[in-house]
Task: structure prediction
Amino acid sequence: MTPTPGTPPTGPGRPRRPGRRLGVAAVAALLLAAVPAGAAVSADAATPKSATGPQGQKLTVSATTGLDPAGAKIRVTGEGYGTTSGIYVALCKDNGANRVPSPCLGGADMSGGSKNSQWIVPKGDPYEGELALPFGPGGTFDVEIEIRSEGDGLDCADVPCSVVTRADHRASGDRTQDVRIPVTFAGREPGEPGGEGVDVPAGTVSYKPVAVFTSAGKPLDLLLHPDSKKLYVGADNIPDTADTDERGLYVLNPEDGKAESRITDAPGSTGALRASAAARISGPLPGDGVVYNYPLRGVGSAKAGDTAATGVWLAGSTITDIAPGTAPGTVLVAQGAKLSEIERATGTATRSLTLPGGTQFAADHARGAVWFSDFASGKLHRVDLASFAVTASFDLPGTDSIAGFTEVDPASGSVWVGVNRSVLVFDATGKPVKTLVGKDLARDAAFDAAGGRAFVAWQDGGDLSDPANDNNGTLTVYDSTDFTPAAKDLSLPGNQTQLGAASLAVEPGGATVFVTSPAEGKITRLTRQVSPLVTQAPADRSVRAGEEVALTARAEGTPEPSVRWQVSTDGSQTWRELDGATEPVLTFTAKSAQDGYRYRAEFRNDVGTTRTAPVTLTVTEATGGDTGGGNGGSGDTTTGGAATGGDGSTGGDSDGDGSDGGTSTGASGSSGGSGSSAGSSGSTVGGGSVGGNTGAGTTSGGSLAATGITVISVTLLAAALLGGGLLIHRRARRRTSGLA
Result:
């Protein structure tokens, strides 16, 4: 709900007012002023971390790593925010620079009652009071929010999350108020494999059409032979498309679709050969070849290179379904509601059973069962293969219209029945376990037992006068254990059911799938693709200036992904690619100016882009105070702002290469000095005497990186730390520890 400006929204609760804590935020911000903008204050989860915004805003969060997934209270402070627009403070999905952080835990608080977010507005705003807190002096605020790893459409185990500020609902398109500080929860720390999927989740599986075969007439059924690896296609003639009769059994090369063989003739009712379509393929023959049904009552077999099929013509009614029998030379045949086991050599029925109704079935030889579907009566019957008797019957809800398919998952024995726009799944005992609903008509299913995947072909109804139809079908893929989607849905343009049902064949392992479109007279070959999934990610590093740094990241995907390393110098607000950094291992020499820099690897392929979680580089001064200026290093090669400082002993030698995208500090020596290549003021707190125009010497060693502004003197800083500032810091730490 978005309230009308000037009309306060309603909601429970009254948020806390900032009260005296605004002053604490201002002093805390002063104590953090010497830290580079956006850099982490400490790797300790309970130590505040800060980042700066596009208009100089500073956001500070009390805890950012190892947070309790079930819930944690954190303190969030800010300063320098505008006095003319309101903001929300919340935990949100971090979508990157200049992209709205969304969704957010608890949504956008417009009621004043949320504990997950805070609404902060300029003083005098109509919503100030019961609904929103006012900014303090200088655009400051100090609030507490309760966050957890999952809720309200947000799951921080799958997507990057940050505590953010963003403009409120009255200026939702304003990105100038966006400031983000990444947070992680226990069990999902930076450096954990997986990665952040940018456009699709990491490891997303999809299928891509790579070839279309039109060499097999009107395709009715498919089988990819497990031994010969040839693609067998049962086909009918496509009317009015060619002068030749296209009926028959085709043998195709599965890579390019070229027809290696075609069997057109099979014995008819008198035993004489005649041109026949191949309606439904029963199963493979050892080595090569298939058993299949040809209209109306023919049971035949053939393999590549045969000039005609061998077969028998059955007595009785039209064959409506066929499957392998219990012995090598037999088949199971449905002729309407009559189920028989037939000797292929003679056509003799060795046993028969007439069911209450039905036309199609699926055989589960591993569990000794046949599942017979009676769509007209809404029943699924289980036939025991040993006794050849019905042992149980189950309801098939919603079967009063279009019948689809009946198939058994060979791995689990679950029964999949396509009915209208649904697939009803029963376990091996007949218990209903899942209903899968699609937007099209469920027409066929196939299984990859090795990969634990079920593939379903859905066809459009083909009647464009019906608003539910668009002439396009769909391929869906499910985990055959928990029935969750295992790949992105793929649209099948033009695949509609008016001229025949679609069928599927899946290569073992699921890398290749074939799907027919009888209405178009084609078979589409699909290959599996996987977006990059991080298998090895870098971790935070702490080094001394001058030491070598090696960050490693690896990912898998199909096609094989490429890698580019990126760096952020402003606390993950913006990122840029490092020139030439295209190998799994990034190596460079650390410089003091790189303290607080964040690094990540970005992997890309045709499916999507995945990034490792950002890691922080902490660089401390080398012993002796002689490494401050540094020599550049290979980890950061983009020209940026001024480089200041230099070796104090040389009287103001600048760093020279300007490669850090900001300012770097020189170590102090005996004579001091300062350097500037772009007008910035350098500052040094070193181990020698004071020298130059901006340096301040101490005898304690170490240095503070320049922030681009003149740093307060060491005397004043020490006074602040040893006086009221230290007291405030201690109080703040006590309050922070009580929030975790």
About this structure: The longest strand covers residues 522-536. Residues 1-45, 625-740 have pLDDT under 50 and may be disordered.
